[in-house]
Amino acid sequence: MGREALGEFEHLVLLAVARLGADAYGVPIVDELARQTGRHVSRASVYVALKRLENKGLIVSTLGDPTPERGGRAKRYFQISPLAERRLQEARTALMKMWADLPIVQKHP
Amino acid sequence: MKLAALLGLLLPAAEREELLGDIQELYTRNAIRKGRARASLGAVAEVLSLAIRSRVQRGEPGRYRLQFEEKNRNHMDASLRDIRYAFRTLGRAPGFTFVVVLMLALGIGSNTAIFSLLDQLLYRPLPVHDPDSLVQLDGPGPFRGRTMGPKVFSYPMYRDFRDRNDVFSGVLARFSTAATLMTGGQSERVQAEIVSGNFFEVLGLQPATGRLFSGADEQTPGGHPVVVLSHGFWTRRFGANSSVVGQSVTVNSQPMTIVGVSPEGFHGVVTGDSFDVAVPAMMKAVMTPAWNDLDHRFSRWVTVMARLKPETTIEQSRARMNVLYKQIVEREVSEMPGLGDASRKRLREKSLVITPGGRGVNADEDIAAPLLTMMAMVGLVLIIACANIANLILARSASRRREIAVRLALGAGRGALVRQQLVESLLLSLAGGVLGLVVAMFCGRGVMAMPPASDGINSISVTPDARVLLFALGTSVITAMLFGLGPALSAGRGAVVTALKDEGGAVMSGKGQMRVRKGLVVAQVALSLLLVAAGGLFARSLQNLRQFDPGFHSDGLVEFAVEPSLNGYTQPRIQELIARIRQEAARLPNVRSASMATMPIMTGDYWQSTVSVEGYQAKEGEDMNPEINAVGPDFFRTLGIEVIRGREFDERDRGGARQVAVVNETFQRYFFGEESAVGRRVTFGGPRGFVDREVVGVVRDTKTADVKSDTNRVFYFPIAQEDQVDNASFYVRTAGGTPAPGGAIRDMMRRLDPSLPVFSLQTMEARMRDSLFTDRLLATLSTAFAALATLLAAVGLYGVMSYAVARRRKEIGVRMALGANASQVQRMVLAEISVMAAIGIVIGLGAALSLGSLVRAALFGMTPMDPVALIGAVGLLTVVIFFAGWMPARKASRIEPLRALRTE
Which secondary structure element, helix H or strand E, spans residue B573, and what is its range? Predict the structure, then answer.
């Protein structure tokens, strides 16, 4: 798979998965995204993005144990892959460099 | 949440569990915060949006598409390439192509055949000038006097309409009757159209040769001995020779001059009917010697059609004509003697009904329901065929995934792939359509062989015309969309790399596609069940009709008829002739007895007359009109009708003798209760006033007009005591097991009067079969369609299960390696089939039960819930399904574990 630029949304999803650590499955991921970005997040697009990221090898998933509050259904846990860690790191570095010489933009009216 | 879980079936199976789990979790959370209703709603919405997104976003973004767009600009080129490619692909799979085209041909063909019938009988406009401005008139409601057929008026009332209206540019009248035509010493029976002089003018028709009638042919009663031949009769009888114009022919022993020929394709204004000769209404006395009634207000016999003036709407004509109609009715009612006030009031309340007439006068409205039923059935057959073909294409596209992936990798756009698939479908469908036309013609010929020759339907053509061709084309295109669109879209969704990598297996043609295919099979099973149930119902109904005892013995009974009045016989001579025919017929070899009646039985016609019964006080408005019939000596013995009380008619019951009658059981029960009718007196009105008769016998009930109608009160009297006999139907009882004496009867009649045509010479069995024409048609065709549908469903199930087994080779191999034996594997496969069959059967049964009421009217002696037909349908379908499923199941059980595991 060739090296593709990470889309903004994919970027956010990866970060959400990374932040949640061991508790990263569907429901909290969507919650986390909504909470941190303050935007409405479509659940379907999050799942689609997760799947796409998994196909790209940026996240890996494991099926957990069934729990009663989920009607006896299992959770799929996600964690970011080493490749994703590297890509996120690179993106961060690039962004930081770009920001470095700029005056900090303060609150807009 | 239950609904959401059910809808979860729409989700990709691989992710279903965790997605539903998430949604369940959200639901639990939301249920506490927002309440259960809103939480449920939210869950359903989430599932749907997930399902849609996961389906739509399957493919990868078309990054290669740009390269192709240059070429696609030249659409013509691209389409040609598509077509060429489609031809090549289909040519490489001759088996597939053959099966699909065959299924389409059967499906489209049967639809086209039924449509052709339906169109010609019900929908096609008359081949006349501006058919849309034609209307038909009807005056329903009570009437005092004689009525010949549905939607008819008296000739004086027709004249009133014609001369006193201000909304029509012309009003025509017509009546159809049989006549005897003689040319060059040869006599034959022809169908005559008695028409008002302006008939052809109002229709705006031009002669094929000579002239047609005009208003000038409507002057003096008896003064217009002219005929117009129909184009068909002119061609058939005179070889389309124009020199016949001006020649003389003899119609009912009156010389008449042929003045012209009506245009080709015009069969009269009655749908499905046709005529041989048209004669002006002024010649009515010649055409129907027994009754003229041209000036009789209390005899209704003409069908009336009119052409609206330009700028006049049908609503306006209704309003204006009803004013006129009320005036005419008012005058007629005031002239009627001896009417009670209640009757007068009811007569006055009648109003005139005006309906569009551009499609012709509907001769046989009974035919509409069975035809529409059949149209629905063939529609279902076509849908089943579509489901089947979609299944085949899906199976094929699974095996073509590598080809598609290669084309994608080489830069084909997904749009191009979809289009390519559609072109293939269209090509298949058009081939099926062309072949379907051939099937339709065969099918049509088969159907046309079924109706009785004497019946109305004789202008139906099986050759497809422009409308039928258009229907076949439209059906083909819609069919192509039905079976081709789904698979085409799914073909455009495949992923390139996985398909290319994936060499032999079918891992990728995912469970989703399998589900679609199984769904299609379930739908097929359900629809087939519906059709098989319908077929069963109609077949059982026909069987009921056939086994039904009509009250007389039809086997060994032969009938024939004569109409001596058309050949100029007068009343005393008619009586002599028919008595002579009866005596001679009874002396023919192998004949036991012979008799006759003025009203033939089992023809759908009946004759009613008002009676008054000694000692019976009729209530106001009570139906005092039993059926009557004038019959000859030995009538009941000849027909095998049991005489319960008294005696039957014999040679003693002559014209001058004591006036006697025989009644049936129903008549006796109605008027006399448990007492005997013998010795009682019954008076009934005839053309010459009232006649008082003494009942001398009671006979068992029989069906008269046809098998289906209710048993009526019937009143028989001796034919020798009827002073107005114009025709007679003879019945000849032969000794058991001897051939029908058709030839002997013809020889005998030639001896008695060579110029007198003999018609309706046939066995009673054939007559009964004819009277069941629509039932036979429905039973035969619906059974055929049901068989076709079942076959298609079986093929579909077989295909899907074979494919499913092939896909699961590895899994089955593992199972067997781990110790599953052959019968366990078979059971596993059959279990899967059982589930599909059960779902399909339950749905089909539900549909059959809820749609049953639509065919109730067509069934005899049973309800649409008939357990035999329904259980039989379920049983039959179950057997066929398991047979179709047994083959793949057996194949599965013979998988060799080692080989299966090695290949993947």
Answer: helix B571-586
Specify the DSSP element, H or E, that contains B188: strand B186-195
User: Both tokens of residue B130?
Assistant: 């501006």
Q: Residue holding tokens 């008294």?
A: B646
Task: Identify whether the C-beta of residue B897 lies closer than 8 Å to the C-beta of residue B816.
Answer: yes
Interface ipTM:
0.80
Question: Each residue of B36-57: pLDDT tens digit?
Answer: 777 777 887 787 777 766 655 4
Helix (H, G, I), strand (E, B) or coil at A7: coil
Q: CA separation (Å) from B340 to A31, A34, B346?
A: 88, 88, 10
Host H or E run for residue B694 = strand B689-699
A23 touches chain B (CB under 8 A): no
Q: DSSP per residue over B407-422, as a string? A: HHHTT--HHHHHHHHH
Instruction: Report pLDDT digits (tens) over B652-704.
Output: 998 888 999 999 999 999 999 889 999 999 887 654 567 789 999 999 999 88
Q: How far apart (Å, rounded) are the C-alpha atoms in residues B760 and B599?
A: 13
Return d(Cα B662, Cα B157) in angstroms, integer: 38
Q: Which residues have a Cβ under 8 Å from the Cβ of B429 and sit 6 or more positions away?
A: B104, B108, B476, B477, B479, B480, B483, B484
User: What pTM was estimated for this model as a whole?
Assistant: 0.64
Amino acid at B671: F
Compute φ and ψ for B460, nearest 5 degrees. -85, 130
The secondary element (H helix, E strand) that includes residue B39 is: helix B36-56
CA dist., res. B125 & res. A74, Å (int): 67
User: Among partner residues A45, A69, A75, which is closest to B18 by beta-carbon distance?
Assistant: A75
Rounded alpha-carbon distances, angstroms, from residue B389 to B89, B429, B432, B775: 16, 10, 12, 32
What stretches of B702-794 adopt beta strand conformation (E)? 714-718, 728-734, 759-763
Cα torsion through B677, B680, B681, B682, rounded to 10:
-20
Is there a contact between B835 and B683 (Cβ–Cβ < 8 Å)? no
B50 → closest Cβ in A47, A66, A69: A47
Residue type, B339: L
Strands (E), B262-302: 277-280, 299-300
Contacts of B750 (CB under 8 A, 6+ apart): none
Q: How far apart are CA A9 and CA A1, in angstroms?
A: 20
Q: Quick one: tokens of B891?
A: 């194949």
Provide the number of CB pairs (under 8 Å) joining chain A to chain B: 59
CB contact under 8 Å between B50 and A71, yes or no, is no
Element (DSSP H or E) covering residue A77: strand A76-80
Q: What angle do CA B786, B790, B793 make, to 5 degrees?
A: 140
H-state helical runs in B247-311? 284-287
Reported confidence tier of residue B718, pLDDT bands at 50, 70, 90: very high
CB B636 within 8 A of CB B699: yes
Q: Which of B420, B377, B389, B375 is nearest to B102 (CA)?
A: B389
Q: Which residue does chain A place closest to B24, by CA atoms?
A: A70
Which of A44, A63, A71 lies closest to B50 in CB terms?
A: A44
User: Which tens digit of pLDDT belongs to each residue from B201-230?
Assistant: 999 999 999 999 998 999 999 999 999 999
